[in-house]
Specification:
Layout (H helix, E strand, L loop, with lengths): L3 E5 L6 E5 L1 E4 L2 E4 L4 H7 L7 E7 L5 E7 L7 E7 L1 E8 L10 E7 L4 E5 L3 E7 L4 E7 L8 E3 L20 H4 L14
Antiparallel strand pairs: 1-2, 2-10, 3-4, 5-12, 6-11, 6-13, 7-10, 7-12, 8-9, 8-11
Length: 186
């Protein structure tokens, strides 16, 4: 029995994951990850790192982060508490959806995750207070490979559901995309 539905999005390789729950009067059981099932959906590398975050303020935005090759990564992002607007931006220079973005609401109650392939930037906005997320990564964090896009970049024109609230100085300082921007290699 499949424990997940893998739903294609308009951006090739970006997959919405619906976890199926088995419920009774005691609560539920939901498989969070299965290497065999996820391999078929594009997560075909071992998990190298897991991160857990807390974002306290509604409206806060984190992102849009990614790592350059050879440390690019596949991410599986899930919301364990609260509700977020999760966004992925296609940075693959050879892609027909280069610099297009797609957003999904992820929450503890809808049991959805976003499977983000290599060559994408990722960020999110907290739609409630005290949002907790868990990230599964196929690559270790490498500071020398880290990069980001500015969440307010007019070239991306991301429709954040709320006014951008709490934003780190680091995320606020990322440059806007210019005409020379070439994206990333996969």
């Amino acid at each position: 029995m499949a424990r997940f539905d893998f739903i294609a999005t308009p951006l090739s390789g970006l997959v919405l994951v619906q976890r199926k729950a088995i419920e009774d009067d005691r609560g539920f059981l939901s498989r969070f990850f299965c290497a065999e099932e996820f391999c078929e959906a594009g997560l075909n590398k071992p998990i190298a790192q897991m991160n857990h975050t807390l974002t306290r303020k509604k409206g806060a935005v984190r992102g849009l982060h990614f790592q350059h090759s050879p440390h690019n990564e596949i991410k599986l992002v899930s919301c364990l508490k609260g509700e977020i607007w999760d966004v992925a931006v296609d940075l693959r220079r050879d892609s027909p959806t280069f610099l297009h973005w797609h957003g999904e609401i992820l929450s503890a109650t809808n049991r959805k995750s976003l499977l983000i392939p290599e060559g994408f930037a990722h960020g999110f906005q907290a739609l409630t207070e005290d949002c907790e997320l868990i990230y599964l990564h196929t690559a270790f964090y490498h500071p020398e490979s880290e990069d980001a896009l500015n969440v307010a970049d007019p070239k991306l024109n991301i429709t954040w559901p709320l006014p951008i609230g709490d934003l780190s100085n680091r995320d606020r300082s990322h440059a806007f995309i210019d005409e020379k921007y070439q994206g990333v290699f996969r």
